């Protein structure tokens, strides 16, 4: 059973253009498009009221993991992509008691790069939490609510494209965890459909 927390400190991250271009994969037929670099920004504290501990018979102990593959994509091997994935992970901070994971998947050659970070958390109002993260940490983007499918909680996505690379940025939260995903080379409509599946691969039931 996870310990309850009263304050969730979330490190915000923002795109910083496309100054760091990943190394071209050897199998690419042509030079890959660049993946925008990410840099750590300020880390405001976001208040999160603890949820009541459910009865032991109803406990579903969800946690977050770094999946072996994400949406069918293998972990990234290109140095530039791995570096940006590490930056995303370093900036998404939920405090010392949380379980935190991050990862970078895909290749620039296939134009299917995904970066993500997630952490366990206790949030009583996921929609309000996602709204606060979006407005405080990513105010230059216009977020819209996203259908979370069978997942609980709330999610929002925004167009975070650079001049060279179409990119969709998504945030999610439920009472068990919260996270962020960058879908590079993906149109918003495609990313929004993929988000619930990616979320489901990152958030797992420890009882199964």
Comma- or semicolon-separated keywords:
208 residues; globular; alpha+beta; single chain; two-stranded antiparallel sheet; 3 helices; six-stranded antiparallel sheet
Care to describe what's here?
Helices cover 19% and strands 26% of the residues. It is of the alpha+beta class and 208 residues long. It has helices at 79-91, 126-137, 188-202; strands at 7-9, 13-15, 38-40, 45-47, 62-64, 100-105, 114-120, 143-145, 154-159, 167-173, 177-184, 203-205. The strands form four sheets. A six-stranded antiparallel beta sheet has the order 6-7-11-10-9-8, with helices on both faces. A two-stranded antiparallel sheet has the order 1-4. A two-stranded antiparallel ribbon has the order 2-3. The chain has one domain.
Give the structure's gist in a few sentences.
The chain is α+β, with helices and mostly antiparallel strands and 208 residues long. The chain has helices spanning 79-91, 126-137, 188-202; strands spanning 7-9, 13-15, 38-40, 45-47, 62-64, 100-105, 114-120, 143-145, 154-159, 167-173, 177-184, 203-205. It is globular and about 40 Å long.
């Amino acid at each position: 059973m996870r310990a309850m927390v009263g304050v969730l400190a979330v490190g915000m991250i923002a795109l910083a253009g496309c100054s760091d271009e990943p190394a071209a994969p050897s199998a690419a037929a042509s030079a890959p498009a660049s993946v925008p670099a990410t840099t750590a920004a300020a880390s405001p504290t976001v208040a999160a009221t603890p949820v009541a501990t459910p009865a032991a018979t109803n406990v579903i102990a969800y946690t977050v993991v770094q999946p072996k593959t994400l949406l069918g994509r293998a972990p990234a091997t290109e140095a530039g992509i791995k570096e940006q994935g590490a930056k995303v992970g370093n900036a998404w901070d939920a405090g010392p008691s949380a379980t935190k994971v991050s990862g970078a998947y895909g290749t620039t050659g296939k134009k299917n790069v995904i970066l993500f970070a997630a952490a366990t958390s206790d949030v009583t109002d996921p929609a309000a939490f996602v709204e606060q993260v979006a407005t405080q940490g990513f105010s230059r983007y216009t977020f819209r609510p996203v259908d979370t499918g069978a997942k609980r909680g709330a999610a929002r996505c925004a167009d975070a494209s650079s001049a060279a690379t179409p990119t969709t940025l998504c945030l999610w939260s439920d009472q068990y965890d919260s996270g962020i995903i960058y879908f590079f080379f993906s149109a918003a409509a495609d990313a929004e459909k993929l988000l619930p599946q990616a979320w489901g691969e990152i958030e797992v039931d420890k009882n199964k």
